C-alpha cells in the first residue's frame, strides 16, 4: 500500500522526507555486495579449509541484513538523537580501540580487533563515523563557544590519532585526518591552521615511513615493484585484464582463486574479472552519485552542524571507496581497507551502515523546516 503525503506516522514522515535516491543507491551497493560475495567467497573458504564453501556467504548475508536494518533505523532518528548516538558511540568505540592495545587480537602485526562473545569486532570502524559527527558538533559550536570548542575537537582527534598509531592503522588515520581537515576547511577556520595540519600530516607520514616497517614496505613496493612481494596486486591487475569489457561471466573467473583477499580488499578485482569494466564503472558511478548528491543537498542547508557532519560522513565514505579501488588498480600503495557494503567484513559493513544511516537522517529535508530536529 502506497504511503500518502498526509500520513503523519513515523514511517510516513520518514518516507516523504528521506532522500530516496541516495537510499536506493545505498541499497544497490548492498545488492552488489551480495553478488560479489557469491562470486568471491567460496574459493577463499575452500582455500583456507573451511567446513563449508558457503561459510563467508552465510556470515555476510547476516551482516548485510543487520547493516540494512541499522541504516534504515538510524535514518528515522531526528538530528538531536543522531548527535547523542554519535557522542555515545564515539566514546565507547574510543575506549574499545584503546583496549585493543592490551587485549586485542594481533593479525599481520597489528592489534585492531577484539573478541567479544564469540564475535571479532574492529572498534575503530565504528569510531570513524561517530567522530565525524562529534567533531562537526564541536566545530559548529565554535561560533558561540570560540576556541574552547575547536580545541576540544582537536584534542579528541589527537586521542584518536594516538590510538590508531599505536595499533598501528595508518590507513584509518589518513581517512579520519582527511575528514577532520575537510571539516576545518568547510567551517572556515584560519587557513594557516589548515596548512599546519597539512604539514603535520606530511611530517607524520615521513615519521611513519621510517618507524613502521610494514608502512615503509608498502610504499617501497609501490614505487619499486621489485622491492618486495606484490603478488596480490599483480594477480589483481591480471584479473582486470582478463575480464576485459564485459567479463568472463559469473562464477567463471579463475584468477580470483589465486587472491587470498579476493572477498575483502581485492573484491573489486573479482568484479573486474567476472563482470568486466562495465560493472566496475557502474560501481564507481554509484559511489560517485552518493557523494555528489549528498554534497548537492547541502547547498541550501543553513545548519552548520548538518553541513559539517554530512561533509565528514560523505568524505570518509568516498575516500574509503577510492582507497580500496585505487589499491586494487595499483594507483596507490596497497591498504587493507574494505569497499563499503561490497567487501566481506562484519564490523566494516555495519559501521558504514551506521554512518550512512546518520547521513540519511541529517539530510532529511523536513527536519530543518518543521523543527523535528
From TrEMBL:
Membrane-crossing residue ranges in chain numbering: 20-40, 61-79, 85-104, 145-165, 177-210, 275-292, 304-329, 341-362
Alphabetized InterPro entries for the sequence: FtsW/RodA (IPR001182)
GO BP: cell division; peptidoglycan biosynthetic process; regulation of cell shape
Pfam families documented for this protein: FTSW_RODA_SPOVE
Cellular component GO terms held in the UniProt record: cell division site; plasma membrane
EC number: 2.4.99.28
Catalytic activity: [GlcNAc-(1->4)-Mur2Ac(oyl-L-Ala-gamma-D-Glu-L-Lys-D-Ala-D-Ala)](n)-di-trans,octa-cis-undecaprenyl diphosphate + beta-D-GlcNAc-(1->4)-Mur2Ac(oyl-L-Ala-gamma-D-Glu-L-Lys-D-Ala-D-Ala)-di-trans,octa-cis-undecaprenyl diphosphate = [GlcNAc-(1->4)-Mur2Ac(oyl-L-Ala-gamma-D-Glu-L-Lys-D-Ala-D-Ala)](n+1)-di-trans,octa-cis-undecaprenyl diphosphate + di-trans,octa-cis-undecaprenyl diphosphate + H(+)
Localisation per UniProt entry: Membrane
Entry keyword annotation includes Transport: no
Keyword Glycosyltransferase included in the entry's annotation: yes
Gene Ontology MF term list: lipid-linked peptidoglycan transporter activity; peptidoglycan glycosyltransferase activity
Superkingdom of this protein's organism: Bacteria
Keywords in alphabetical order: Cell cycle, Cell division, Cell shape, Glycosyltransferase, Membrane, Peptidoglycan synthesis, Transferase, Transmembrane, Transmembrane helix
Membrane protein topology class: Multi-pass membrane protein
Family per similarity comment: Belongs to the SEDS family. FtsW subfamily.
The name this protein goes by in its record: Probable peptidoglycan glycosyltransferase FtsW
Organism encoding this protein: Teichococcus coralli
